[in-house]
Amino acid sequence: MTGVLTFTDRGIYCPAGDFHIDPWRPVDRALITHGHSDHARPGHARYLATEAAAPVIRHRLGDITLETIPWATPRRIGGASVSFHPAGHIPGSAQIRVEVAGEVWVVSGDYKLAPDALSEPFEPLRCHAFVTECTFGLPVFKWTSDTVIRDEINAWWAANAAEGRASILGAYSLGKAQRVLSMLDPGIGPILTHGAVEATNEVLRAQGIALPDTLRVTPDLDRKAHPGALVVAPPSALGSAWARRFGPASTGFASGWMRLRGVRRRRAADRGFVLSDHADWDDLNRAIREAGAEKVFVTHGYTDIFARWLNDRGLDASVVPTEFGQEEDATEEAE
After folding, report:
1. End-to-end CA distance of the chain
2. Is 181 a residue whose pLDDT tops 90?
3. Any residues with CB less than 8 A from the CB of 46 and at least 6 apart, and which?
4. Using only C-alpha atoms, what is the Rg of the chain?
């Protein structure tokens, strides 16, 4: 293999096209898989992203030079042909396919194979080399269906409302919060949102993404006027003075990390809902099989364990250190 991509201290680099993919230090030309803060960073001279990802990236990074590209549309950049394909992670998230002299490499970014109500469905791509995340690269991480999680969240909310408590649900402001909102039954009560969540809602609604009606929490909000409300907020708001304004409340946290009891205890939430925007163990393995790659590069997550697992099964896998995996509202259990 000729090395279509190399791994540098600035990020994943394509020498033939002189561009980087999701670089973590300033570069001249950055191809961006999606808008989470560990993948879309400030300081680059030029950006390229999908049309669906661009509004959130602009919202987060401000006045940047950003060009957009339609799905699955090849574009020549220097000696490379690039195209963006759905990753299923959050709305607009992409895998980036890079072809040089007939050799194809795919950078997955973050991805999820299971469909949801918001994101463009993951598209399997055949390639010679596959750069994959493994955020949840352990067999313990296996997800239940959205239908089951939806029923769990709504039942928890309804029970709290019946007992006169608010429900405060922690979910990351881009992607997870909107996925949770798409599952809620508005007939149970009002839905309130933290400002960081509502700002993202506004961007996505402007793109035509359907979300239930929500009310932004402001300093003068009268909580007593919204009995039995469910409040969607970043995880960093749980347990804060901001959350305590709602009086008696039950707290929940939506994350794939809720599969681990130790994380649930550290989060000190009353309920944990196992909901992730990343592939679980089975789907990581499935994505790699479907790619049919001769070489697999494992980036953020349980990298050493997952690479060893792949090598034991006859694949040529190696670990690539990156600075991915620390999204907004992040702790050591970033998702």
Report:
1. 33
2. yes
3. 28, 29, 30, 65, 66, 67
4. 20
